Amino acid sequence: MFVHCCHCSSCQQESGSAFALNAIIEADHVVLDAGQPEIVHTPSKSGKGQKIARCPECHVAVWSHYAGPGDKVCFVRVGSLDESHLLPPDIHIFTRSKLPWIALPEDTPSFDVYYDPAEVWPSESLKRRKAVNW
Asked: Positive or negative, the Cα torsion across 108, 45, 22, 117?
């Protein structure tokens, strides 16, 4: 539906990097090649927590479920995909905590905190969001 590049301090700590790059997709569109992920419940600053799906063998985070959309939407870690270069960020969020040496592209929307999807997402993505009742 949309690709977030999140610069919040929680994403920095969880990813061990400068940001987390998540492709938002309906959970029923996520297909596993084999096995089942290990679901790890983690706290969040919102107090609502998140569930991180990790590979049971290498423990790499593959996707997360956040409290808002719940289990019906996966925030897939773009870096875990074979062709991650095909999913550049549609938006940069929580840039108030962006590391100072990260330069954001001028042609990609960015917000100090979160944003209103109705103002940014393409209409087709908004239809998909509405279809999962999020």
From this structure: negative
How far the first Cα of the chain sits from its last, in Å, is: 12
Q: How many domains does the chain have?
A: 1
Query: How does strand 91-93 pair with strand 2-6?
Result: parallel
What is the full DSSP assignment across 44-75? Answer: -TTSS-EEEEE-TTT--EEEEEETTTGGGEEE
User: pTM here?
Assistant: 0.93
- Contact predicate 39/51, CB 8 Å: yes
**Which single residue is written with the structure tokens 């108030």?**
96
Residue 113 neighbours by CB under 8 Å, 6+ apart:
93, 94, 96
CATH of residue 58: 3.90.1590.10
Write down the residue that tokens 């596993």 correspond to: 32
Backbone angles phi, psi at 104, to 5 degrees: -90, 140
List, for residues 32-85, the tens digit of each pLDDT value.
888 899 999 988 777 888 999 999 999 999 999 998 899 999 999 999 999 999
Q: Which domain holds residue 116?
A: 2-131
